[in-house]
Amino acid sequence: MRKFGSAAVVAAAWLLGVGATGEAPLTPADRQRVVEQLGQTLEANYVFADKAKTLAATLRANLDKGDYDGAQDKAALAQALTKDLVAASNDLHFFVGVDPKFAADYAARKDPTRAAELRETDRRDEARKNFGFTELRRLEGNIAYVGMSHFADPELGHDAAAAAMRFIENSDAVIYDMRYNNGGHLEMAQLLASQLFRADKDQELFDYYYTDDGRRVARGQWVLPALPAKRLTGKPVYVLTSSTSFSAAEWFGYSLQKLGRATLVGERTAGGAHPVDRKPVGTDFFVQVPIGQIHDPVDRGDFEGRGVTPDHRVTSADALIVAHRMAMADVAKADPAKQADADWFAPTLAARAKAVQLTPADMRAVAGRYDGPQVAMADGKLLYTWRERFRATLEPLGDDLFAVEGVSDFRFRVVRKAGKVIALERINRDGTTDSYARLD
Length: 440
Hints:
Elements: H1 9-15, H2 28-45, H3 49-64, H4 74-89, E1 95-98, H5 100-108, H6 112-128, E2 133-139, E3 143-148, H7 154-168, E4 173-177, H8 186-194, E5 204-212, E6 215-222, E7 237-241, H9 248-258, E8 263-266, E9 276-281, E10 285-290, E11 292-295, E12 312-313, H10 319-334, H11 339-352, H12 360-366, E13 368-369, E14 374-378, E15 381-386, E16 390-398, E17 401-404, E18 410-417, E19 420-428, E20 433-437
Parallel strand pairs: 3-4, 4-7, 7-8, 8-12
Antiparallel strand pairs: 1-10, 2-3, 5-6, 5-11, 9-10, 13-14, 14-15, 15-16, 16-17, 17-18, 18-19, 19-20
Helix pairs in contact: 2-3, 3-4, 7-8, 8-9, 10-11
């Protein structure tokens, strides 16, 4: 169901900057029109009708105060509106973007022929991303590892999911990596989670409602009775989390934790519990807006704005090592004959945990505020922070070059002048660069 399919937009919001496009400057009338259209869209779609009116009024008041006068192009206006929506609602699902093609395609989907063509485009796009499955591994000790960037629509990604489920079906334990998963379709989470429960047990996984063109839909999602792979009933399950785990990825871990079926390892998650949809705003903009609520199957609660607290809190960069060790200990405890494997691999895992460290002086030289990101020292590491919530460890590569935890599309280089750090240079995978001047 596509209502949960657009949370990946948030990844673009914090990982990528939005730049000018060389378009004609916006006029005051242009900005007013966009704010009015956005307000109307919020009032028609936001899950909390009373708050929608307040948000719309806040944006209009900001417009009247001149807060958006500096937004000379569409991208800058979208960025400012996103910032204000998130600040006023404390809901990280909100995102305003510029995408005339999306607005046109949204209208075109009313035509069955055009809708089928767009669906095929969706399938091709998802195929290039392997339907969210970034990595499948058999770790030491017969521990399965499943890395995922997002939850694809299972109608499109069922075959990929089935292959992943078959890959892990003979493991002694499984680790699901949700650290860099920005959400997506809850139905894919339902499919994967069903492998962890018995088929003959009536077990609800998620309970939720949403609005669909003014119609309220309420339903639950249960363990599926038929699967394309053997079940992992009774085997240890770990879910890795971080501050960038979002939406359906959070629900996957949260519900399994509530049901006592998984142990969560890592950092508190972002706290985006509401299902979302993308809606056009005029002909050039769109808004990602929460349209419903989900509840856990035990307490009927959620984690909106608070995030999911892991059972074992460690830095996200260390979560896999910790979970791997715990999984091997669990397997050995359940089957003493496998203790030898745990003992054999213990030195390997211990060595792997010894990450290269910078000296405190080196870290102090880099830590500080930059034009956009911030870099802070914490627990002997450098943490890169964007939009005050999303954090990732900077991993030293040498020669003032740093990888960003969980990110393969860019890295940072420290720029120095007369021995002093004056900027961070973002080096993108495509060869382009962006520079963030140091502010302190």
